[in-house]
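Hello again, I could really use a second opinion on something today. For a while now I've been wondering how a particular protein folds. Please have a think about how the structure follows from the sequence. Here's the protein in full, and shout if anything looks odd to you:

***
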Amino acid sequence: MKDLQLKLKELTLPQDRALGVADERGVIIVASDEQIIGEQDAAVRAFLASGDIQSFAGDRTYRVVDRPSGTRLICFVDGADELAAGMLELFSLWVKAELKQFDDFEERDQKQKLAFLKNVLLENELPGDIPLKAREYRVKYNVRRLLVIMRTKPEEFKACHEALEERFGDREDDYILPMDEANLVLLLETPDEENCETREAIFSKLVADMKEEAMADVKVGVSMNFASLKDTAKAYKEASLALIVGDIFKSKTPEVMMYCNLGLGRLIYQLPITLCELFLREVFAPGTYEALDPETLLTIEKFFENSLNGSETSRQLFVHRNTLVYRLDKVEKITGLDLRNFEDAVLFKLAEMVRDYLTYVEENKVTRYARMGMELGAEDYLPMV
């Protein structure tokens, strides 16, 4: 409201009557008499409670001015006579016109700012121009951020966007970038001390809130922390990769894919398909993996989850330890791999993940290179062959 105050000082106003603007709490934020700015006008709340558009209370006349954002401002003039009412009507029209001009400027400025940030993450800005334009658009350059891609269904996109605006819209240095009809990007400031586990819990809560507030099922891919705006494009690739790899290898929290948790999946995704096929044939002879029944596969999964601890695995599966030993012996007989041996366990797990990856490629009928170029545009993620 500083600009409105400056413009008010340029007007020729009567000296015997103070006029100004208060917020919904009754705090005076603009006034011809600068000494009363910051004071609280107790009559404002009573006036708002009356539901009137214009009325007088005590020694002032009040009028409501609605803003597009839904907030209300209250214009006032000293006096409760016809002169005060006439002055107030003209003053309210002036305030409304000035606020519209200000809101239009803010809207244009915000659109330009979001377009700039979108160009940065899509690598459509020259690196040397980024700090200059960041200063022009008042975007902090050196600040620690996270980039989050939220993926939803097209029919749920609008509700998700509105829910995110409600949650993050008032944060001056957090940004929401609509990318297409199913993807939203969040650029969020983040504390240095947050670790991967803490961030995963935060975004799991966000996903749950989206389900409750927007009635939308969403997935999010979360980048690593980055300290400079120039690293936004790299973070975008990380968040994109987290969504893809997390979907292939079915992370523990399938709605929240953290780049910091990708582990072996990130490595496998970057390997040439021919090398993956060769490796899989060497570890699992044709029909070998398919010979493992669902009960045995569940046993293997739990055995790995418990770091090859037989006692804990037996307890969680509600089976006798001898039953577990029998099942592991069965796996060794079929595959030739003794999962109680660390190296064999690693080899089995790696081959299982490679199999999941090749199944994903086959089901999607898209080559790995085409998909990487299409979704990430990231040469640095393509393997050197």
Q: What stands out?
A: Strands lie at 19-22, 28-31, 54-57, 60-66, 72-78, 145-151, 175-178, 183-189, 219-222, 256-258. The radius of gyration is 31 Å.
